[in-house]
Amino acid sequence: MTPEPKPTVFIIDDDGSVREALEDLFQSIGMRVFAFGSTHAFLQSQRPDAPGCIVLDIRLPGQSGMEFQRVVAEANVALPIIFISGHGDIPMSVQAMKSGAVEFLTKPLREQQLLDAVQAALELDRTRRLDDHVTSKLRERYQSLTAREREVLALVITGLPNKQTAAALSLMEATVKVHRSQLTRKMGARSVIELVRMADKLGLSGAET
Question: Rounded to two decimals, what is the model's pTM?
């Protein structure tokens, strides 16, 4: 089994002393760390293909942390964000959490609280990466289906029996059974319920499949 890539923490803070202290903290527990003085520098960087999260100062020169949260969402950068702030701004923290932040911590930071938040964020990213991998494999399987198999699948996942499926597609019932057996094998499904779950994960409905 391939070992998991070393988890990565991205620090974005314009205060060099804060960046250095956080780098030392995360490296001390075996994490890979990349530190940036601005959101622009982060966006220009090459990011490793590994579970990760962002520790982000909410108040930055130029683009604020809140604005950056919107930018990364629009850019499909799915890394979980932990906000850090020198101010206990409750409305801002509520807004950040509603927008998907994992945690909102105020300075001076408590090391264990920050480490716990980072571990929670990394676990979220591991789950997301695994889900993306599963969906990608399902998409490959779906792409391997013939046009006719996709038509049969679209009706099968609505619960339509073979006889009605055959009538809807102007096919022999025996032909539908063959297509159904083939598509089930290609998709790696063991039941109709599994086919329905797979189609749902792919964002397919009976009409769209």
Answer: 0.77
